[in-house]
Amino acid sequence: MLAGIVTATLLAAFLGGVFWLFVLRKPSDFERMARQPLEDNAGEDRP
């Protein structure tokens, strides 16, 4: 019984995460995060 409750809880958490990631996030967020490593950080000193 306890194993079923834990399994159902983890399944609900997983599905909630998938819903949040693919439904609630905007494509512009992904584009911004994809370009972030390529941006020049003008405010930082370089060695």
What does this protein structure show overall?
There is one protein chain. The protein has 47 residues and is an all-alpha fold. It has one domain. The protein is 68% helix and 0% strand. The chain is elongated, with a radius of gyration of 19 Å. The chain starts with a helix and ends in a 12-residue tail after the last helix. The mean pLDDT is 84.
Characteristics:
single chain; 47 residues; mainly alpha; 68% helix
Secondary-structure map:
Elements: H1 2-24, H2 27-35
User: What integer value in Å does the Rg equal?
Assistant: 19 Å
Which percent band covers the strand fraction? under 5%
Low-confidence stretches: none
Which of globular, elongated, flat, extended, rod-shaped describes the shape? elongated
Mean of all residue-level pLDDT scores: 84
Number of helices: 2
| SSE order | HH
- Structural class comes to mainly alpha
Straight-line N-to-C gap: 59 Å
Number of strands: 0
Helix content estimate:
55-70%
**What is the number of domains?**
1
How can the largest sheet be summarized? none
Task: Give a short summary of the structure.
With 47 residues, the chain is mainly alpha-helical. It is built from two helices and no strands.
